[in-house]
Amino acid sequence: MLFFHGKQIFSAIFDMDGTLFDTERLRFRTLKQASLEIFGKALSEQTLIGSLGLSAKKAEALAKAHNGEDFPYAQIRQRADELELEYVRNHGVPIKAGLLEVLERLRKSGLTMAVATSSRRAIAEEYLINANVLKYFDITVCGDEVGQGKPHPEIFLKAARALNCEPGQCFMVEDSENGMLSAMRAEGQAILIEDIKPPAPEIKAGALKAYRSMHEFLADLSECVPDLGMPALSEPFPASMNQFSVGIHGFGAIGGGYLTQVFSHWDGYTRPREIIAATRSRMLRESVSAFGRYSVRYGATSFDQTIDNVRMIDMDDDDAVISMYTTAEIIGLSLPEQAIRSQARVIAQGLLQRFERRGRELTLLIVLNKVGGAAFVRRHVQAELSLLCPPAISEQVLQKTHFAETVVSRIVSKLGNDALVRQLRIKSQMFQNSLEDEPASTRKSSTPLPEYERLIGHFRPFAQPSSAMSQLHLVLFNSEADMPLYAERGSDLLERLRQVKTVPDIAQIQIIKNRLWNGPHAIVAWYASLLGHAWVGQGMGDARVSELAERLIRQEVAPALVAEYPQMAEVVSRFAEAFLERCKTSFKDPCARVGRDPLRKLQRNERILSSIDLARKHGIATPALAFGAGLAIHHALNCSNSKDLESQAIRQVYLDNQESVEAVLTHANKPFPGLCPVKDAELIAAIREGFRQLPQPAPRHAVAVGS
């Protein structure tokens, strides 16, 4: 039961064609085609629109009134049924957008539900089963089961009686004028969802509420159902799927190990039918595609969460990425800055194609761990749009795109390739063993099989391998358990996502999180690696590393943030404690991954140096942070990964300037601005002193960046 605009509602009765399904337009096409085939002339729009919501008998009378008594309506209707069924069997029933979310909310609010349709039962059941919505309805009343069709109230009254509900306590959801008259005459709570032909104003006025779309009804209904709150980590994803596709541009640690969970929980009632994930990693693409799903491991709680309905695409396949931007309802963009620069053109192409083909808004969740990340992405996309279309069109495209800045409160790591190959080797052997253990069916019989056995036989060859696969799951990510994703307000869609917390000003949370986590996290990883530890969690077992982490957070970064944002003291404390606790248990977090991109972390207004500036502003000494900046340079000089261009850049500047730490810190290497030799002389000296406390880096030759 729910209270809706002052009414107590116990049941909901839905019309089918035009209300549940977008079949009225399909019906128009098939009736026109059938009429043309049989009668030599297509039915007119006037006849078709006039027949909306009518019973078969009344629709036939109308058609004959317009086309003569010899008009073969029954034959045309039968042929139209055949054409319509052929389309539905090949393409599926076109479900009204927002329907599944509405049905889930009504069902979980305890309402009983029925379908009251003018269609014959054979047609109605096939459509309801095809669309996988029959499960929502307790009963169905069809046009061939009542004496009088709409606009007579019989069909709604019969459905209400079958549900043991008074008509006045039933939603009666309709799209047509005749349907509305039927619901109103039954004295139900008429809900109008407009379709092809809006009812006359006086009939529309008789509705309890009238909406232009199912989504409008959904938004109103959502105000009347309980807020499900933040999901628990182990809470199952919704079983029912909606019609949305969502995208992840960058299937890395956050994209694959976090955003997929956010999208899978969705609003708690349904989840997207498909997650499209773009990555350059062929191994990841083929692994996920082969298994059909993958898992994220939460080691601290010994929980593996399975993510399914993921379709992998190649990030270098421009057509596939553009298609994702055209079709997805929301896209999580989780790429580093350099990758965003290189992908900006294909993003712009996708947004432009979306605007031209659909004209629909798109929410882009920007996961960049950078203050101003949304503006950064928007700026680069806008620059590419200016090369693709006139300024007026570019502005319209940008207006249709919500660039939502986010803060991720979770540490996630992706399995390395070697670990993934080892896992695949083990899973492959397990799968082969399970197939060998299952004896093949050799039954042969000359006796005709019952129909059910013949039908089941179509599926039997695939059942055993499918069963064997269901026992396997591929772990691709290790993650901490924090659930909320913070996002800036501005997108209605984000307000519906259960795992998203929208805030009016994301910048403060971004600054607090970045300075408490990203800079210190890298410093801890650099120091742990220097001391011979491969994982952050292992490093925290070393007193030298844990003491550095405590000093960084409790004596320098957190006090500076509280001094700057006193109203956010509780948030600072929560993030600080969570960070230290996670570092202690991050046994799947490789120091090499956490410590990558040292040049980015040393830029003037981010991560480490900005924390030093803030602390000094409030008179707080920063020896641990200065030591950490020295660790960044030391890490880069000792890095042997030829693909780490930032470490190569640091090493080249260092060697080209007689092994000068000052040269590295002041080097104007765009897009990462360095320190000022004059204004920052004291800070440079402190970092240089921290660097001198470290073992001398192994001598290396300079390597040209990009070689």
TrEMBL record:
The keyword Repeat does not apply. One of its GO terms (molecular function) is mannitol-1-phosphate 5-dehydrogenase activity. It comes from the Bacteria. SUPFAM superfamilies: 6-phosphogluconate dehydrogenase C-terminal domain-like (SSF48179), HAD-like (SSF56784). Residues 512-668 form the Mannitol dehydrogenase C-terminal domain. The keyword NADP does not apply. PANTHER family: 2-DEOXYGLUCOSE-6-PHOSPHATE PHOSPHATASE 2, PSEUDOURIDINE-5'-PHOSPHATASE. This is Bifunctional enzyme: sugar-phosphatase/mannitol-1-phosphate 5-dehydrogenase. It comes from Pseudomonas putida (strain ATCC 47054 / DSM 6125 / CFBP 8728 / NCIMB 11950 / KT2440).
